[in-house]
Structure formats: C-alpha cells, structure tokens
Specification:
By secondary structure, the chain is an alpha+beta fold. It folds into 2 domains: 83 residues; 235 residues, 2-Layer Sandwich (BirA Bifunctional Protein, domain 2), CATH 3.30.930.10. The strands form 2 sheets. The protein has a 7-stranded mixed sheet, sandwiched between helices. The chain is elongated, with a radius of gyration of 39 Å. The termini are far apart. The model has no long low-confidence stretch (mean pLDDT 89). The structure holds phenylalanine. The site of phenylalanine (PHE) has 11 residues, from β9 and β10.
C-alpha cells in the first residue's frame, strides 16, 4: 500500500466534475463500487503488515468518507443542474388518464326542452337568482301579505323595507323582466335555478330548476296554449302522448290549469309511477292575467298571452324513473355515471 496512491485519489476527488446524475453514478462506481479504486485499497489493507494497520486504517477511512461526501455533493449539484434545464421528459411514457365527466341529468333535460321550444320559435331569456320582491311577487299579481304567497315559501336576503331582496322562487320573474324590456310579440322560455324554503325530502328540495315559458301577441287563446303544450309533450315523451288539463290556481294566470301527460311507462293502464291513475303531472300553466300585462306596461285590451312552468327535476325523474330528488344534488359518481350513455343533446 502506497501513500502516494491514496494522495492521488484524494487529489482527484477535488477535481472530479460531473454534469449529469449518470456521470455521478459512474464516478461512484469507479471509486466506491465493488471493483472501485478505494474498495481495492481496502482489499489491499487486509494483507498489509500489522504495524502499518493503525496508520493506514485511519487514512483509508478518511478517504472513503471524503469520497462519499464528494459524491453526495456532486449528486446534489447535478440534480440542480438538471432542474435548471427543466424536467427530463420521456415522451414515450403513457399519459395520465383524464377522467371524462358526463352531463348531469337535469342539464340533459333542460337542453332537450330548450331545443324543443327553439324549434317552435321561442328565445331563451335569463335573469338574476337574487331578485326583488317586485319581480318575484308583486308584478305577478301577488299583493303584499296576500295568502297566495304561502304557495312559495321564500328565502329573504334582506327584509324589512318595501322591496326586499330574496332568492327567486320561480323563473316567472324573468318573464316580468322580459315583458318590461321587449316589445310584443314575445315568445321566450326562461330556464333557471330557483329556491324555496322547503324541508328536504325524496319529493322536495330547497333548490331546484325550472323552465317557464311566455307567449304574448294579439288574439292568443287558451286553444293556442293547449296546442303548444300538446306539441311539447309529444316531442318530449313520444308521439303517442296525450295530455289532460285540470283547473288550478296561480295568481298570475286566469284561467289556470295543471297539465298531466299520459303515463309513458304503463301507457294509461296504471302503475306505481303514476300511482295507478295512468297520468303524470308535469306542469302548471294559464292565460296571463291582465293585471300582470298592465303591471309591465302591456295593453291588456289589445294583447293576450299564455304562460307555463315546469320543474326539471320532476321531468328528469319521470324520464329516468329516479325515485329520490336528493340524488340530483349529491354528486355521487355512481348516480351521475349512469347518464354518461344518455344521447348527446
Ligand atoms: N310559476 C309557477 C310555479 O313556479 C308555474 C307557472 C308558470 C304556472 C306559469 C303558471 C304559469 O309554480
């Protein structure tokens, strides 16, 4: 064992330069690997004279530590060198798979309804979700403190003054804004999210979605309303669908009706979906009350019109036989994925 071999290796350590991790690894193998120069010195050490062991043992251990420290230093340097150049890209690696979402059933149904009414010549109108009392109630013929307001229990955003702000309970408020803004004839549908202070259950929720429609022109009659709803029902639920109208009450329409479609599951025979009646309720409608036209500056002597409104969750429940409204709001992928194969609308 020669001191000069040890000195030579020690000196070479200071001069050692590596650019890449690969070069660092090569240097490590050359020095400390199984057949490395320093490892070879340790082999030699086994056979040297006992008298020299204490002296060389210490020097060799120091050399080994220095070499290891230098390799560590180079490794850190090389990696920072690499990060300056940016990550090493392997373009042949398979990519990260991207999870594809699917359309939400409520959004599928909304699009279907909008497409049907677009074909009939209706435009889409939108309005604010936080509305004032005037547009949600007063302009629609709900006088202050009138019991009809109980039909739509409301979340108030600010209370206590003449025209409080609230979360709209129906998109009829958008119809008011449209009547204020647009010249007659008017033909619009208003899709949107609405809010009511309801206890959440399988059949009710405090958030849901509606599409409401409004048609105003000269000589619009109840027969026009009936025909529009029949055409819509046949486009939506199939050409054999029949409708029936039952008298009802809404403050903003007179006369008012609720519309049922023939049950598309049992075709009128009676099943548990239609509760044995053969009919399913889908919407409310009526002739716009002259008070409502006048409130928005439309001459009720010259013009008349009809309005209708339906809940999207309800239509989607009938379409896909969903039995609990809460499924629509829980974002459970096991539920939502079932609509992935729904036709692209
Ligand atoms: N706005 C009514 C509701 O939300 C639905 C409706 C609209 C009824 C238009 C008649 C005419 O319950």
């Amino acid at each position: 064992m020669k001191q000069e071999d040890i000195d030579r290796i020690a000196a070479s350590l200071a001069e050692l330069k590596c650019k890449t991790q690969k070069e660092v690894e090569e240097a490590r193998v050359r020095l400390l690997g199984k057949k490395g120069e320093i490892t070879a010195l340790f082999e030699e050490f086994r056979n040297i004279d006992r008298s020299q062991k204490a002296q060389f043992g210490k020097i060799l251990n120091e050399l080994k530590q220095k070499a290891q420290a230098r390799i560590d230093e180079l490794r850190a340097g090389a990696s920072s060198e690499a990060s300056k150049e940016g990550p090493q890209l392997d373009l042949t690696m398979p990519g990260d798979p991207m999870e594809l979402g699917s359309r939400h059933p409520v959004s599928i149904v909304r699009q279907e309804i909008v497409d049907i009414f677009r074909k009939f010549g209706y435009d889409v109108a939108e309005g604010p979700e936080i509305e004032d009392d005037y547009h949600v109630f007063e302009a629609l013929n709900f006088p202050p403190n009138h019991p009809a307001r109980d039909m739509q229990d409301t979340f108030f955003v600010s209370a206590g003054h003449l025209n409080p702000l609230l979360l709209r309970t129906h998109t009829s408020s958008v119809q008011v804004r449209t009547m204020e803004r647009m010249p007659v004839p008017i033909r619009v549908i208003c899709p949107g999210r609405v809010f009511r202070n309801e206890a959440i259950s399988a059949r009710a929720h405090c958030i849901f979605h509606q599409v409401e429609g409004l048609y105003i022109d000269e000589n619009v009659t109840f027969a026009d309303l009936k025909q529009a709803i029949l055409l819509f029902a046949r486009e939506m639920f199939g050409p054999d669908t029949e409708i029936r109208m039952r008298p009802s009450y809404f403050p903003f329409t007179e006369p008012s009706a609720e519309v049922d479609v023939s049950c598309n599951i049992c075709h009128g025979k009676g099943c548990n979906i239609c509760k044995g009646t053969g009919w399913l309720e889908i919407l409310g409608c009526g002739m716009v009350d002259p008070n409502v036209l006048e409130a928005s500056g439309i001459d009720s002597k010259r013009y008349s019109g009809f309005a209708f409104g339906m809940g999207l969750e309800r239509i989607a429940m009938l379409k896909w036989r969903v039995n609990d409204l809460r499924h629509y709001f829980e974002n459970d992928m096991r539920f939502l994925r079932q609509f992935a194969a729904a036709p692209e609308v």
